[in-house]
Amino acid sequence: MDAREIIKARGSDFPVKMREDEKLLCEAKISQAVYWKPLAIFFVALLFLLIARNLFLFLAFVALVSYAYFYLVKSSLFLLVTSQRVMFRSGLIKVDTVQLRLDRIESVEIQRTVMGQLLGYATVVITGTGNRFAFVPFVANASQIRDVLDELLYQRDKKPPQDDGL
Hints:
The chain is α+β, with helices and mostly antiparallel strands. The chain contains 5 helices and 7 strands; from the N terminus they run H-E-H-H-E-E-E-E-H-E-E-H.
């Protein structure tokens, strides 16, 4: 699947047309571990199945609602790295959709929680110039995203400055 098809499949938030000489370098894989909280709630509910039936039903309902919520979260998360920019979307109620040119990126961080370390996911935090920063949680290939962006930023910084003729 090329970049146009990926972007088109993700909705109208992003332009379908890629820029001239723009290549898809990396796409974030959202981990299936996004569902660990609903599963944990469901297993706790199972503990109450024989002891307190009403509590089991309540917790099973909470697990079902949590599963639906995290399904929507997983389907809304998006991170795409091209040779010229980074496009990402996160959030469910407040959707944050951003295209960030590579020359506007200051740093890329990976944040791992204890559960993230155990289940193999991380949050990718991208800091742009000014006060702009964004994060995409539950990324299974966070190290790959960081490595691709670090290499692009290194290549950008290695280029000699352009002379504007002034």
